[in-house]
Specification:
- A 5-stranded antiparallel sheet has the order 2-1-5-4-3, with helices on one face.
- The protein is of the alpha+beta class and about 180 residues long.
- The chain starts with a helix and ends with a helix.
- It contains 8 helices and 5 strands.
- The model has no long low-confidence stretch (mean pLDDT about 85).
- The radius of gyration is 18 Å and the shape is elongated.
């Protein structure tokens, strides 16, 4: 950052002008700044809790990811998240975020939405719990049990249990059948 200071660069002004959605959240989880590109995705949500724009089934994972950055546990995260837009539509996004420092102290999180999926994600199947819906979403993306385990911070056996329960809920016998049934809704 020293080189930017030497240049007397107005980074905030530059971020206001780019067409990449960007935001800043303070350590309490309050959205403090959203650039115009971000406002086109979720509206002007400045002053609101960041989880207010996250789909219900994604909130726990979003809080965990946020906490990792605020306590200094990770340098950056890249997460797929479902956001809820002003009109209630859901949109899949990939968010790249980093802790925001003032000297040595973490004062918040800066992030950019690096990909916005044009096709909104369908609402979760009412027969599934939020966790089962999350597991099914990852199955649809071709994730293995170990990949789901890593993504959701669960043991492989817990993931297998969720898969068994979602099979029962959807009345299917395989991952392929579960994905096929999910895509019918």
């Amino acid at each position: 950052m020293t080189r930017l200071r030497e240049m007397d660069a107005d980074v905030e002004q530059a971020l206001e002008q780019i067409n990449v959605p960007a935001y800043v959240i303070d350590t309490h989880g309050i959205i403090r700044w959203v650039n115009p590109a971000g406002q086109r995705v979720v509206g002007d949500v400045t002053g609101r809790q960041f989880t207010s724009v996250v789909a219900p089934e994604e909130k726990r994972r979003a809080r965990e990811s946020f906490a990792q950055k605020v306590v200094g546990g990770v340098e950056s995260t890249d997460d797929e998240v479902v956001l809820v837009q002003e009109d209630g539509d859901r949109v899949n996004v990939e968010i790249s975020a980093v802790p925001l420092y003032s000297g040595d102290k973490i004062i918040g999180v800066f992030g950019q939405v690096v990909h916005v999926d044009d096709e909104p994600e369908r609402p979760p199947d009412a027969r599934l719990t939020p966790r089962q819906a999350e597991v099914l979403r990852l199955l649809e993306r071709g994730h293995s049990t170990s990949q789901i385990s890593g993504e959701l911070h669960l043991s492989p056996e817990t993931v297998r249990n969720h898969i068994r329960h979602l099979f029962r809920a959807l009345d299917v016998h395989s991952r392929i059948e579960a994905v096929a049934v999910a895509r019918q809704y």
